[in-house]
Amino acid sequence: MIIKRLIFGITYCLLWYISILVGFFLFICPLLPLVFFHPKLYRKWSETVFGMWEPFPVALLEIFFGIRAVLSGDQIDPFERSLLIMNHRTRLDWNFLWVGLFHCCHPYSHALKYVLKSAVMHVPGPGWVMQTCSFLFIHRNWSKDKRLLGRLIQYLDMSEEPYQILIFPEGTDLTPSNISKSHKYADEHNLERYYNVLHPKTTGFAFLAHKMKLSGKINAVYDITVGYPGRAPQNESDLLKGNFPDEVHFHIKRYSARELPTAEPDLKQWLTDIWKKKERLLTNFQAADGNASERMMEREIRNSNYTVRSDGSEKQLPATLGASSANKSQTDGGLPISDSLKSANLDDAENIPTTSNYRESSTSNSSRPLLNRYRPSHLLYLTFLFWMALIDGFQHIIASIYFYRYKIDPNRKDA
């Protein structure tokens, strides 16, 4: 079993990395002259290439490693300009997030920009692609990062295309040493100790949200909570060893931009409150067993009591990160997300699709695609075949160049 996992892990990492190189050299490099003549077209095409590639790791994870994604909450609207905030359980959350995005973005046409450490931009292949797609890189020096983030936000705002920015406010993954540092920070500032999340660094989020809100370029903030009920690969070496999770749970909560404060100090407090809720949510998730109906009974986050798995089956909520709006209503009179937003007279509430809406509209003739309409697996098979064909063609090109360069006849048989 260990050898099998190791083979699978190495195969996954090789295919993942080689596909990045194939996409960069075959599709993005030929577009580089457009940087000087038509920057907007270059940006759009490079993002299209990256969007074509993103389902490939999803195909590898779902088809070959049987990873099951369990989603609950709100669908992500790719036509909104939005901020995505997410807890950083492991160093590999971004890799499994692609599975969630593939199923909860309808249509799958998002332009997600990750906020990453500056060291990542120098990784051959992935770093090059991320730079061409305008990912945001930080140096852990706020005076420098503030200037860079401000310039990049200004650049993105000049484009006519919607974009989403993903930020990990914790700044690092959940490890024993980082938990100890978080506890020390909590004790120094008279805060509650967290065990399932780290206390967030609020400055970067507050700056981005403030700039985007002042410019009128933000429609929503999506709070994503990720949880691993079983095995959780902590770092890259776990991928090489084939230590993949069996399930990854995502709970998504949409907040309209109208709900956000404007001042940076208020935005910092808003994020702090969100993380307090996230800690309680994950505490329940980790404490209850897989059959407990209380597993994700979180009292602040309202959600429908249905979810879907990657095989397309619909199940009752107890085994997911989401909370039941029905149970919520029974306990404290709360409303489902869509109803609570409408009661607040938000202009865009009627455009916010939720799983609750899906249940209501399933008997009507609504055709709105919602969270629990999973994408059929044949799309992943087609994506896999497409990129495997490209990888095979790319290796033949490299081999031909090598044989030509060294004047080697590949059919020659040495005596």
UniProtKB/TrEMBL annotation:
GO terms for biological process: phosphatidylinositol acyl-chain remodeling. Residues 82-229 form the Phospholipid/glycerol acyltransferase domain. It comes from the Eukaryota. One of its GO terms (cellular component) is endoplasmic reticulum. The chain crosses the membrane at residues 12-38, 379-404. The keyword Lyase does not apply. This is Phospholipid/glycerol acyltransferase domain-containing protein.
